[in-house]
Amino acid sequence: MTDTEHPRVVVVGAGRMGQGIALAFLAAGRDVTLADVKETDGDRAPYRKAAEQQVLERLGARPAHGPGRAPRLTVCDRAAAAAPLAAADVVFEAVPEVLEVKRSVLSWVDATAAGTAVIASTTSTFLVTDLAALVRDGSRVVNAHWLNPADLMPLVEVSRSEDTDPDRVARLTALLRDIGKVPVVCGPTAGYIVPRLQALLMNEAARMVEEGVASAADIDQAVRAGLGPRFCVLGPLEFIDWGGGDILYYASRYLAAELGDRFRAPAVVEENMTARRRGLQDGTGFYHYAPEDVPAYRAGRVREFEELLRLRAAGLRADAAFPTRPVAPPEPE
Question: How far is CA 305 from the centre of its chain?
Fold first, then answer.
């Protein structure tokens, strides 16, 4: 059983995502139970053994978690998961994105887990409001969208509804921070934050290939060498403030006229422009900037850029810093 000083964690679903979440906790020195709940007529014991071996092999390739005893992984079937669930503080549901499967598993978790437990679904498809309706007390359900691979990617998007218990959100985000993750909180909206942003980016990249604007290799190179480092240091809204909301305002008008309404700026950009909330130059935009703090803020961000690019290029030849892949041949006509 998990150390009493740490929240007790059960991951329900022993597929790729469940294994990745379990590994994230083990890598942070935490005990975790991984429950294989797939119901089949066949013997699942070999699958559970293989899943355990895969997780432990990946854990062995990571740096040591620190002093003290090694964290314990328990892989079990549905029947054996009842006791860990009853004692769990946080339960991560990581079963396939099929509503009936979610319904069955969440109903079982709801009936088995302690009433104080947080039930966190890792779904990327269903809204938290939909899943909360599948249990008796929807206030304890929250979505925790881990990006793949779950053990490596820092971000976890936590989606809550108006009915979600704020204390459960606070406990979940504290736990995630404790194991080195970066949780962000959003409302019950399709696409969360990252999938919604990346869908627009990926579709526009594909559209440029379709239109013959540039090759796939050059578009990807532009993102790796340009957008990637830029938005790793400055988020998109911070970057609007950094460069000036007026630049986005005029650029959006030009692009919308040339390429279509998908480039039209949202109302908040026009409102900020009209009210002279253009970012650093006005002292306010999407963020507030005290005049006396701006020089140090700018210098700090520039240092982050320099360090990021230095790390990215360390040990690599200049022409190999951003390697490309072979381009797929065109389809025959």
Answer: 23
What distance lies between CA 121 and its chain's CA centroid? Answer: 13
Name the least confident of 2-6, 87-91, 172-176: 2-6
Full set of structural domains in the chain with CATH: 9-186 (3.40.50.720), 194-318 (1.10.1040.10)
> What pLDDT, on a 0 to 100 scale, did the predictor assign at position 89?
97
How far apart CA 183 and CA 158 sit, in angstroms, is 7
User: What pTM was estimated for this model as a whole?
Assistant: 0.87
The token pair that represents 57 in the structure block: 């092999």
Per the DSSP assignment, residues forming a β-bridge with 77 are 36
Span 26-43, pLDDT tens digits: 999 999 999 999 887 788
pLDDT above 80 for 331: no
CB 280 within 8 A of CB 243: no
Per-residue HEC secondary structure of the chain comes to: CCCCCCCCEEEECCCHHHHHHHHHHHHCCCCEEEEECCCCCCCCHHHHHHHHHHHHHHHHCCCCCCCCCCCCEEEEECCCCHHHHHHCCEEEECCCCCHHHHHHHHHHHHHHCCCCCEEEECCCCCCHHHHHCCCCCHHHEEEEEECCCCCCCCEEEEECCCCCCHHHHHHHHHHHHHCCCEEEEECCCCCCCHHHHHHHHHHHHHHHHHHCCCCHHHHHHHHHHHHHHHHHHCCHHHHHHHHCHHHHHHHHHHHHHHHCHHHCCCHHHHHHHHCCCCECCCCECCCECCHHHHHHHHHHHHHHHHHHHHHHHCCCCHHHCCCCCCCCCCCCC
Q: What are the φ/ψ torsions at residue 203 (nearest 5 degrees)? A: -65, -40
pLDDT category of residue 64 using cuts at 50, 70 and 90: low
**For strand 155-159 and strand 182-186, is the pairing parallel, antiparallel, or unpaired?**
parallel
Q: Please give the biggest Cα pair distance in the chain.
A: 69
